[in-house]
Amino acid sequence: MFNEITLGQYYQTDSVIHRLDPRVKLIATLAYIISLFIVNGWAGYVLAALYLVIVISLSRVPFHYIVRGMKAVMFILLITILFNLFLTPGTPVWTLGPLTLTREGIVFAVKMAVRLTFLIFGSSLMTLTTTPNELTDAMESVMGPLKVLHVPVHEISMMMSIALRFIPILMEETDKIMKAQIARGADFESRNLMKKIHSLVPLLVPLFISAFRRANDLAMAMEARCYRGGEGRTKMKPLAYRGADAAAYVFLALYFASCIVLRILGM
Amino acid sequence: MEMVRAEGLIHDYITRDEEGNVSGTVRAVDGVDLHVQLGQFIAVLGHNGSGKSTLAKHINALLYPTGGTVWLDGMDTQDESRLWNIRQEAGMIFQNPDNQIIGQVVEEDVGFGPENMGVPTKEIWQRVEEALKAVGMWEFRKKSPNRLSGGQKQRVSIAGVIAMHPKCIVMDEPTAMLDPGGRREVIRAARALNEVEKITIILITHHMEEAIYADHIYVMDQGKIALQGTPREVFSHVEQMQELHLDVPKVTLLAHELGKRGLKLPAGILTKEELAAALGLSAAREEHTSASGALNAGQEQ
Q1: pTM, whole model, 2 decimals?
Q2: Total beta-carbon pairs less than 8 A apart between chain A and chain B
């Protein structure tokens, strides 16, 4: 049953954004997140919104897919807004017991909410248009220069892609163990939180043991196939920039420059 | 030409207690001599814990001998400067199909070995195509390995090894976790590689039926070679095999039992057809083979 879950939230369709080199999308997403914290005035937010509208319409991903990403972070978003509303010092507008609502607080909270929403839209747009595989490839390539600082870039990306491959397998295994424990009278349905946590122990222990065994087997299989780290390794599917990628970089640079200009102008 | 040679191979597993002190040693392989010629199909039989998997891991330097020496294509497996040549020449297939597939797409997994060897991109694609076609998995190249059956996964693993252009493939119980259909698929792929590509196959198994095609069989017990020879020679020792807790093919057993009851039959009968012929049932034999042929064809579809 778990087999049918697609990992990440890749939305399969053919669009300009889907066909872009994953490195472009990764860098653009990072740049977009940074830009959200550079702009400070309303004009800047309009610009950021415009950028988002253009990219979303180019990507052909239905808008409700993008909004879906918001659900998971709704809680964090609400807390952030509440804290900003009540804990920002400034001109009081309204007081309720120890809590004071300030004018600055309202402005700040709205800005923060807009920033976070855009941030989530922007980054889920990346995961919606890029397969997890392409993403790990892009990360390995973009983080390449960090090798000078002895950051194990290749190893990190290899770990990520192995994790992606094994998540469905381990999920299936969890399902199997769960059924085996249910058959012997284990209760996973209990509403009692303590009981629920308690019932996870007989699930997690065999799962961990099996995961370690798998890791051991896999390491041996990789070694048997001449794996020796990133040194001297070639790529079956090397990343290559095309014309559209250059255009995307130009577009991104223009956007980023405008953000900086707006910040300087204080708009 | 000699592909694999082992002389007096000994392997001890060291067991340690919780503080990491040596608490004992277990001798898994005890003085084994092995001679495998290029292009041979070799079967290694033995019950669980007989040391056959440990022996297999010595052939491509996943383990190093405690005593004795193993040569692969003339290279001493303890010679670290040749380690990657050894691993490229002797591919290895393991028991669990899930735990040896690294890629998230079939074709990427097959390309993993050549990538590690530093093969240029264009050639990787050629090798992947060749390898997937050789095991009949070409049409599955874009699929996720998670959606394949056990036998198909194992064939992908074999393709992954073939793409490295090995001279020899060691298969460590590749069929142990498969259903009968999957088992047939894998054994057929292994035999085809041996016959068509002339790749040396060392098949480790405890399914006796898989061993009857071998050129030479080694039977292991408690780390030693207990019996060796052609399938006919080995399986004619029915009683000795049973003492080693190993079966012989059912037909061989039947012939043996008939022989004990007084029928004069040659030793080491391996197939139904041979038994029928020996019993002088030539007419029945034809009927039988055509019937079993139809049955096999039905099962394969």
Answers
A1: 0.79
A2: 90
Give the end of a domain, one of B193, B210, B229.
Answer: B229
Copy the structure tokens of residue B181. Answer: 């259909």
Q: Which residue of B has its CA nearest to A7?
A: B104
pLDDT of B73 > 70? The answer is: yes
Last residue of one domain, picked from the residues B177, B195, B229: B229
Does the distance separating the beta carbons of A164 and B104 come in below 8 Å? yes
> What range does the domain containing A227 cover?
155-233
**Could you tell me where the DSSP H helices lie in B20-100?**
52-59, 83-89
Residues of B in contact with A228 (CB under 8 A): 84, 116
- Among the listed residues B10, B32, B189, the one whose alpha carbon sits nearest the alpha carbon of residue B97: B189
**What are all long-range contacts of B175-181, with beta carbons under 8 Å and residues at least 24 apart?**
B175/B205, B175/B207, B175/B210, B176/B95, B176/B205, B176/B206, B177/B95, B177/B96, B177/B97, B177/B150, B178/B97, B178/B150, B178/B151, B178/B154, B179/B150, B179/B151, B181/B151, B181/B299
Say whether residue B187 is in contact with chain A using an 8 A CB cutoff. no
CA A146 from chain center: how many Å? 21
pLDDT tens digits for A221-267? 999 998 988 788 888 888 888 888 899 999 999 999 998 898 888 77
Longest distance between any two alpha carbons in chain A, whole Å: 70
The interface predicted TM-score of the complex, written ipTM, equals 0.82
